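protien #1 (seq + structre)
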Amino acid sequence: VKVKIPFGNKHIDAIFSVPEKKSTYGVILTHGAGGDMNFPHLVSLASYLASHGVLCLRFTCKGLNIAYRAKAFKTVVEYLKLSDEYKLSGVFLAGRSMGSRAAASVIRHLSQEDDDDDDFIQGLVCLSYPLHRPKLQSKLRDEDLLFIRCPVLFISGSADEMCEKQLLEGVVSKMKAPKTIHWIDNANHGMAVKGRTTDDVMEEINAQVFSWLRKNVELEHK
C-alpha cells in the first residue's frame, strides 16, 4: 500500500507491506545515503517480514544531512503511531547504513525528551551501521548508540570497510542497551560476499532480523 506522509510543506513517499493477519508490531525501515526505499535489500526484508506476520513500513528520504534524515524518520514514527488503520502496540526502527544512524538518532532524542513515543519504540535494527568513514577509524559515529536503552540488533559484514569488526565490538561492549551482533562472513558494506548470491545473503539477514524481533516481542509479553 503506497502512502504519502506529510512532512513540512513536502511529503515522504512510503510503502506498507501488510501481513495477512493483523499485526500488533511493526517495523519502519529506511535506506542508506544512496538509493531509496526500493533498494533490493529493503524490499526483500519488508516482504519477508510481512509474509511472517510483521507489518513493515519503508520510506524514502533523500538528503545527506543526518539531522534532516532523523527528522523525517521521527515524522514517519508519529504517522504510524497515530494511524487508525494499523493500530500497533509498538514499532522497531530499522535502517541500512546511514538510515540506521538516523534511526539511532531518533531513538536517542526521544529517550532524552521523556516522550511517550519512547515506549512505542521497541528496538533498533542496524544493517551495515556505518561506524566510521572508510580508512578513518579514529572518528567513530557511536555517540547515539551509547545513549540507547532499547534492544539493538547489528547485522554487519565482517569485511565492511565502514565498520571495522573490533571497533564495533568495542562500542557494543560499552552500550547499556541489550544488544546482539550478527556478522555476515566476508561481506562488505553493501553485504556482497564473493561466492554467494544476493538472495542467499538476504535469506540469512532476513531470518536473523525476524528471529530477533520475535524474541524481543515475546520478552515484552512475559
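ok now protien #2
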Amino acid sequence: FDPRHHQRTHCYGLPKTGPHRLRFLLESVRDLRETLKRKGSTLVVRKGKPEDVVCDLITQLGSVTAVVFHEEVKETL
C-alpha cells in the first residue's frame, strides 16, 4: 500500500482514498490472500513507497527472477 494514495488531492484537498474505497481494497486483498493460500501460495503485502518496498523485498527474498508491476494513471488537468 502506497501511503501517497491516502494523501489529499492537489486541486480540491479531498482524500484520494475514502473510507469506503479503503474498506473495499482491504477486503479485496484479504480475499486474494485467502484464495492464494487455499491454492498453496501466498500474498506479500507491505506499506510504503513501492520504489523502496520492492527493493527491500528483493533483498529479503534473495531468489527473485522477475518483478511485475503497473503504473497508476496520472491525473491531468
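Residues 19-38 form the longest helix (20 residues).
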